[in-house]
Amino acid sequence: MNITLRQLRAFIAVARTGSFTLAAESLFITQSALSGLIKELEGSLGLRLVDRSTRRIQLSDTGREVYPLVEKILNDLDNVLDEVANLKALKKGTVRVAAPQLMACTLLPEVIAAYSAEHPDVRIRLVDCAVESVVSRVFSGEVDFGVGPERDPNSDIDATTLFELPFMAVFPPGHALAAQDSVRWTDLEAWPLIALQGQFTERLSVDLHTAMREKSLDPNTTVAFMSTALSMVSAGLGITVCIPYAASLVRLYGLEMRPLVDPVVTRRFYTFTRNGRSLTPASQSFRDFLFRYIGEHEGYAR
Asked: Which Gene3D superfamilies match (predicted)?
């Protein structure tokens, strides 16, 4: 069978109006075109759907049985098209994004709030997780895309640079380092260093050793979360290093930051997407907004 939507809509229009003239007007086609569509539909089905006489037009017994089925098909299709239009127009939709715990409690809530002000009907689901699991959540399809620091290359994952920021020294107010506009890495040796566990410290140690052959990172204490490190610094147990996007959390703990120099070591952050998997309109819109937000705020080098 070669049945078209135009034929089905013509049949529904005739059934609702009981008139070829009115049905043709409602579809903005000629009466002869409408009659042709009904004949084509009947020919494809091999059934008479409309009984015609000189006085009136009415559905045949078969037509009356078919009518509610065709009406449901068209209603369901119209609902699908409306749903697609809403998704495309960002009148609804859900975005799932994974990010490390520190970024999820500092930068991203600010971005989500700004985006939601423009697109209040789009729901953003933020998945805060360990840095090491951001890419795996993208790969598994649990999230639409992820945001985080550079990871080892993966042929299944596309990584696009979002920003690049230098490391900062973090210490309590009144600390000796507060008198300096910038802090050398060698200056940190005078105080206990609290660092993050895992690849954060491992990659930083490699970068420092590359830039300063005799220097590597030697923390006194390692912790799983930056919030723990900041709390320990606030208690006077040492100093730490972080990326400046965490400034709001640093201020929340009443601490101060200074840029680390000699050498300046930076860390790149990326958005991660699955190769071969397109983003939904809402997800693409939020990802584009994230890049614009970063570009419009000072301190984020691309």
From this structure: 3.40.190.290, Winged helix-like DNA-binding domain superfamily/Winged helix DNA-binding domain
Q: How far apart are CA 194 and CA 208, in angstroms?
A: 16
For all residues of the chain together, what is the average pLDDT?
A: 89
For residue 277, give the 3-state DSSP assignment.
Answer: coil
Q: Which long-range contacts (CB under 8 A, 24 or more apart) does 175-180 make?
A: 175/239, 175/256, 177/239, 177/258, 178/256, 178/258, 180/258
| Bond into 120 cis (ω within 30) | no
Alpha helices in 142-269 (DSSP H): 199-211, 226-234, 247-252
Q: What is the pLDDT of residues 92-123, one digit of tens each?
A: 788 999 999 899 999 999 999 999 999 998 99
Do the beta carbons of residue 116 and residue 286 sit within 8 Å?
Answer: no
- Encoding tokens for residue 272? 């991660």
> What is the tens place of the pLDDT at every residue in 254-282?
999 999 999 999 999 999 999 988 888 89
- 227 neighbors 182 (Cβ within 8 angstroms): no
Could you tell me which of 127, 79, 72, 128 has the C-alpha nearest to residue 102? 128
Q: Which two tokens stand for residue 230?
A: 């900041």
pTM of the model: 0.72
DSSP 192-215: -EEEESTHHHHHHHHHHHHHSTT-
Alpha-helix residue ranges (DSSP H) falling in 28-94 = 31-45, 61-88
- What does DSSP say about strands 193-196 and 123-129: parallel, antiparallel, or unpaired? unpaired
Task: Give the Cα-Cα-Cα angle 118, 105, 262 (nearest 5 degrees).
Answer: 110
pLDDT tens for 175-223 read 999 999 999 999 999 999 999 988 777 888 888 877 776 666 788 999 9
